[in-house]
Amino acid sequence: MKKYLISLISFILGLCCFLIYSIIGCKVAPDGTLVEPFYLIPIGYLFIAIGIIIAITVNIISRLRSLKTNG
C-alpha cells in the first residue's frame, strides 16, 4: 500500500477538485457574466490522470522486480 500512496493522494486530490467545483457552483454576476471556478475541472482530470499513470508505472516496476528476483 505504501508504494501506491502518491497515486492515491493524486487521485483523491482530483476527486476533491470535482467536489469543490460542485460545492462552489456557478452564478450570474449583476452584469450578466457567468462566474464559475472552471479551472477546477481540468485540474481534477489532470490529478486523476497522473494518479492512474503513477499506479500503472509502480505496478509494472514492482512486477519487473519480482520477476527479476524470482527468476
Helix content: over 70%
Radius of gyration, rounded? 19 Å
Percent of residues in beta strands: 5-15%
- Overall average residue pLDDT: 92
Strand order of the largest sheet: 1-2
The major pleated sheet works out as: 2 strands, antiparallel
Rounded to the nearest angstrom, the distance between the terminal CA atoms is 24 Å
**What structural class do the secondary elements suggest?**
mainly alpha
Overall tally of structural domains:
1
In DSSP terms, counting alpha (H) and pi (I) runs of 4 or more, how many helices? 2
Q: What is the 3D form?
A: rod-shaped
Low-pLDDT windows of residues: none
Could you list some keywords that capture this structure?
71 residues; mainly alpha; two-stranded antiparallel sheet; 2 strands
Would you summarize the structure shown here?
This protein has one domain. The protein is built from two helices and two strands. It has helices at 5-24, 40-70; strands at residues 27-28, 34-35.
